[in-house]
Design goal:
heterodimer; A: about 350 residues; alpha/beta; Rossmann fold; 7-stranded mixed sheet; 5-stranded mixed sheet; about 40% helix; about 20% strand; B: about 325 residues; 9-stranded mixed sheet; two-stranded antiparallel sheet; 12 helices; 11 strands; binds thiamine diphosphate; binds iron/sulfur cluster
Chain lengths: ~350, ~325
């Protein structure tokens, strides 16, 4: 199996990658378009001696994660936008109590019930500290099924390393597409978890999983400690710069499935003689500023393309500032910008640069 | 003049509503889905009671059954998964003049909405709550529901569900201040109709569990009780659901149950030998939260402003 190529659907590959990363405990509630993840877990986990539990709601699921994660095991849940939103309170407690866990959000059209079509409208919700209080969490945004597999392993390691939940975001297209993938053949990393509530040895004080600090000074000290940790996470920045070595005139910014569509557009634009490249965040948080910075000077203009009405573009504008124009093209409600739409946006931008 | 009001022509004409006045979008449920039968019962009831369409609202959560509001040509509220009851309570809290029908599913009400279910029953605001119980999650394509039978194989329990089903009737009858609890089956239109009619007449929250067929994912699930009427226990009483003589002939297995007897109601709700249908419990004098929340509804804006000012006066320096 390991090392071999398998043809799998995104959702199923995500589930399998989690299992291979040593996560044998899944708690979740059905919601389209990601129900294949819990369904896959329900088949795979019981024979492994793991736990698959269909909770009565997403609120229950995140708190089951809190409990099992607090007991020191690798835990995961998955949901889609409205269901993930219900998890934000519990998520904040996981951060406050420093309990590792992985949460997958296969985003769908919103707001409200919206629809079940692919979308990227939860970017800001996920990246601005998904939960109340001063908090952050690493957010990974894979763009292919193989990359989804790779980031799942990474997500569990990062969660354990930083003792902080990690979010993986995808859109419905990533979840539904079938692609050949291979799984890593390495054993999952094992982390020492002396903080876990696993039964107390006489030699140590008892562990209490907690996020309550009534005393303001104590809470501030705790939040400052967490903040030091969030700053340390900055080293986890990951991004892909594609076709940017020749300093293209225009750089398209996109993540997830949107970036794949952008790549197709870029190939066609290059065939027409336009000079275009791609900057693709893989960590939506921490925002991969270090990879973007060297692109700013040589690029004449940026075009951010999203399945939303403008969320990632806010991070790009914050960094690029007035140095270069950053334009935006997005579709919402489950409508996906097409290759043709991107091409015509780039051609317009190119024309306006030529005229300037 | 001659006994006629000057503006007599502005008087609302007497309106008469026919079935079409309650028929909204064409239902997109599967053919043979029990939801269709319940919808038509509600539409007939609305017509027979001449409910004013603009004074009627259908509230739902999310699920197949929760598409109900789209199919009624009344006001509708397609809310959040699990939250139909708080939404309906919000409507009721300030609009005592509306007729409220709530459509909810077994996942919607008995899984994600459980906390709301318990409190809505306790609030006892006047509304008809129809729990369309197909023992499965239909909309999300066959996952286990809390009311699924034990060992039921679904997409989330391929080895069979592990627990015995939750009984929505026993739960509801166990909640403090429950005031109307009944059960019916979608395949008996006459009983559905009479049950909903009694529910609508009840001054409080009327909880009606309707066993609902889902031919798409649960083909033949209720076939045994459909084929063999003796598997149904018809609860009768002159204070219960009025029973047509033909029903009495069909359901030979009958018991006289006084719906004011809560202990007996709970015993019948727990019956394993047969599926009881009819009225388990009714208390027309239970406390009602909506009587309190609607207080002051007829205050004028001037009266309200005065009350606001009176409160602020306390902070005068
Ligand atoms: C917060 C949230 N979680 C999950 C869902 C997905 N979802 C929609 S309906 C449903 C269950 C439907 O089952 P049920 O209430 O029994 O109604 P049925 O479709 O069988 O009529 C689920 C899980 C959602 N819409 N919102
Ligand atoms: S899936 Fe089942 S519950 Fe949903 S419409 Fe079809 S028959 Fe009805």
């Amino acid at each position: 199996m390991a090392g071999q190529r398998l043809l799998m659907k995104g959702t199923e590959a995500i589930a399998e990658a989690a299992i291979r990363a040593g996560c044998h405990h899944f708690f979740g509630y059905p919601i389209t378009p990601q129900t294949e993840i819990p369904e896959y877990m329900s088949v795979r986990l019981p024979p492994l001696g793991g736990t698959y539990l269909q909770a009565e709601s997403e609120v229950a699921a995140i708190n089951m994660l809190y409990g099992a994660g607090g007991a020191g095991v690798r835990v995961m849940t998955s949901s889609s936008s409205p269901g993930v939103a219900l998890m934000s309170e519990g998520f904040s407690y996981l951060v406050g109590a420093e309990v590792p866990a992985v949460i997958v959000n296969i985003m769908r059209g919103g707001p409200g019930l919206g629809n079940i079509a692919p979308a990227q409208g939860d970017y800001l919700e996920m990246t601005r500290g998904f939960g109340h209080g001063d908090m952050h969490a690493i957010v990974l945004a894979p763009s292919t099924v193989q990359e989804a597999v790779d980031v799942m392993g990474l997500a569990f390691d990062l969660a354990d390393e930083y003792r902080n939940p990690v979010v993986v975001i995808g859109d419905g297209l990533l979840g539904q597409m079938m692609e050949p993938v291979s799984f890593p053949d390495t054993e999952p990393k094992v982390f020492d978890k002396p903080w876990a509530t696993t039964g107390k040895a006489k030699s140590r004080p008892r562990n209490i999983t907690n996020s309550l600090y009534l005393d303001a000074d104590q809470l501030e000290a705790h939040v400052r400690d967490l903040d030091v940790k969030f700053q340390r996470m900055d080293v986890e920045q990951r991004a892909e710069c594609w076709m940017t070595d020749d300093h293209p005139e225009i750089v398209i910014v996109a993540y997830g499935t949107m970036a794949r569509i952008a790549k197709t557009a870029i190939r066609q634009l290059r065939a027409k003689g336009l000079s275009v490249g791609l900057y693709r965040p893989i960590t939506a948080w921490p925002f991969p500023s270090r990879a973007l910075e060297p692109l700013v000077e040589p690029t004449r203009a940026f075009l951010t393309v999203e399945m939303s009405l403008g969320q990632l573009v806010q991070d790009i504008r914050a960094q690029v500032g007035r140095r270069r124009p950053v334009s935006f093209y997005g579709r919402a409600g489950g409508v996906v910008p097409t290759v043709e739409e991107i091409i015509s946006q780039v051609e317009l931008l190119h024309a306006s640069l030529a005229a300037a | 003049m001659f006994g006629l009001k000057q503006d007599w022509q502005l008087d609302e004409k007497a309106r008469h509503f026919v079935l079409e006045d309650y028929e909204g979008a064409a239902p997109r449920w599967c053919s043979g889905c029990g939801d269709n039968a319940v919808l038509s019962a509600v539409q007939r009831l609305a017509r027979d009671l001449q409910l004013v369409p603009e004074k009627t609202v259908t509230v739902a959560g999310i699920g197949c059954s929760s598409r109900f509001p789209h199919y009624m040509k009344t006001y509708g509220f397609h809310g959040l998964h699990g939250r139909a009851l708080p939404v309906a309570s919000g409507v009721r809290a300030r609009r005592p003049d509306l007729d409220i029908f709530v459509a909810t599913g077994d996942g919607d009400c008995c899984a994600i909405g459980t906390a709301h279910w318990i409190h809505a029953i306790r609030y006892n605001m006047k509304m008809v709550v129809m729990l369309l119980d197909n023992n499965v999650y239909g909309l999300t394509k066959k996952q286990t529901s809390p009311t699924s039978r034990r060992s039921f194989t679904s997409n989330t329990h391929p080895q069979g569900s592990l627990l015995s089903p939750l009984n929505p009737l026993s739960v509801t009858l166990g909640i403090t201040n429950a005031s109307f609890v009944a059960q019916t089956v979608d395949w008996n239109p006459a009983h559905v109709y009479e049950t909903l009619k009694a529910a609508h007449a009840h001054p409080g929250l009327a909880f009606v569990r309707i066993l609902q067929r889902c031919p798409h994912f649960m083909d033949g699930h209720f076939q045994d009780i459909q084929d063999d009427p003796s598997k149904i226990l018809l609860m009768t009483h002159d204070k219960g659901i009025p029973i047509d003589p033909s029903l009495k002939r069909l359901f030979k297995n009958q018991v006289v149950h006084d719906p004011s007897d809560l202990d007996a109601a709970r015993r019948y709700a727990d019956t394993q030998d047969a599926v009881p249908i009819g009225l388990f419990y009714r208390n027309e004098h239970a406390e009602r939260y909506d009587l309190d929340t609607a207080r002051g509804i007829d205050m004028t804006p001037q009266q309200r402003m005065k009350a606001v000012d009176a409160e602020l006066d306390r902070f005068l320096v």
